[in-house]
Design goal:
globular, 7 strands, 39% helix, homotetramer, Rossmann fold, 6 helices
């Protein structure tokens, strides 16, 4: 079995809830970026030891939160030595509208993963035309998109999004196991 | 008043319907790219004469249709002389899921407009949290996103999307009038 | 004449040097984001009063620096009221390689500007095939790309990049003057 | 060993030359999209049988050529059944300037690969600061970027770009072998 980690920032608990489902699917350790954008040495060690790192962030103003970006900038230490080369990567995001600029966030996760020499695994659950409910109700392929209204608590994230997150975690872990 | 044109490709009539609402809002001429990706000389002349060109395409396999891309490639003739420099640009797309990769299509419209030296105007209607209905129900800012289920006819595009298209056409034309 | 501002973050002085040339071209006020990603109230007021805001950031790990992103996240206060609607926007970035993921940074500036309801003006200087020197030597359209080797000081940014920055500032200010 | 294929469109021979080096590195079959954007049944069969598909296109007007896009649209037949799920994917592009909008093309390859449920492998050769020559002289991570001046023949593509293409083909094939 592959060692997997989910590294994420969550501002108000929504992305944290999605992270839990991804982690459950992958059997992953949860690595929470703090409110100042920092990780502890132990958290960095968890990422270094992982076969797969799945990244999560809310989409704020069309992109990952600054706290997630601070983590990404700090990961340049790994970049210098290509220390994360060939790890498997994936990503998920959550925001208030159905589309918003969530794809922009997922695209950035890919860009970051490519700078790190990682291998990207996308989301493959299909919706079968049941728009607005069920697996992949939002229609996302590069990673997982989740949604909860602007004033809605994390508990109101649609079950379809959480189920997609769970299935995605499982998929990433399976690919990582093959490559490990 | 500004002269505006809506240049679009539509495979099955959905994008054409959105184009009609954008054109109505803008008071624009409709310039339909044909099934082989071609425009007539008269259609090119309409674009050359316009103060604003609003681009539309379905999102197929995560990007504008090949017919729209053939038009974009043919527009390199304008690029060589920066013949469309300072025209106002905008864009809209339609696909079967709520998000899909519609943002990828809108991003490409921006990239094309920038190569042509055009000035990009985005979508500014807000949703006020009425997710899945009303103006900008999908949550799009770079341009307009519309949606109709995979098997649904063009008549089933949500009214909110069409209203957004109408308001967007109006906005682009207003900016073009100021710059003309 | 239009009031313009250049808001930027610079880690080691390279982006600051490009910012100076953009600002000179535009006749703009320089608004430097500090090392913690913050602006003073007076700096926010400068942005609020501007007809055009040109954004600058190094490209770190494939995207704007976290400090710039912290500014972007803080700009959500303007987003709630569309307080920056119809301001003109532009952007520039600097990194160590010729391409790198500089386009990713420029794309994000566009995404942010669109969320704010701003109007995007790109870079229109052409290179005339003098690859690696002269105006637009790197080949960028969405905004300005500048480059200096990883160990090179800011003084070694190519003159062509700085000339492009100057011309770009002028262009953005001209469009802003027409719209003001 | 993995079965690999390089599917590409080339307008004037530049992208074809890069394709040859990628294919040599990967031990891949070359699958050339014709001037009308079509493949033969035998060519589709080659792609169906491959463990890895590496995509190549010039960057025209900021994106893959319309011929490549026509291939992408036709690949929707595979999408309906997720017939290419878990194949490895990669990509390369060539254009006249150092950056141009080549990243836009590579991003689209990723988007297409994700729609198809494929697994993306990026470019990991480093440049060690020898900007403008040597491996990865342009600075690209998501895939391979190659460059030859606007009037230059394919024979003038820099050796560093071709060496990068060769190394990239090898890398993609190695990952595919592990996953096969």
């Amino acid at each position: 079995m592959a060692k997997t980690a989910v590294v994420f920032h969550s501002g108000y608990g929504h992305t944290a809830r999605v992270a839990e489902f991804v982690a459950k699917g992958a059997g992953a350790d949860l690595v929470a970026i703090d409110a100042d954008g920092n990780l502890t040495d132990a958290q960095w060690a968890t990422l270094d030891a992982a076969d797969a790192i799945i990244m999560g962030s809310p989409t704020y103003m069309g992109m990952v939160s600054w706290q997630f970006k601070k983590f990404a900038d700090a990961s340049s230490k790994k970049w210098f030595t290509l220390g994360w080369k060939n790890k498997v990567a994936g990503g998920f995001t959550c925001s208030a509208s159905m589309s918003g600029d969530k794809l922009s966030t997922l695209q950035y996760f890919v860009t970051l993963a490519m700078q790190q020499g990682m291998i990207w695994v996308g989301q493959t659950e299909t919706n079968e035309y049941k728009i607005t409910e069920g697996l992949n109700r939002i229609g996302s392929f590069t990673g997982v998109m989740a949604q909860a209204g602007a004033m809605a608590p994390a508990s109101e994230i649609a079950q379809g999004d959480l189920d997609t997150a769970l299935a995605y975690g499982k998929r990433v872990a399976e690919v990582a196991a093959k490559l490990a």
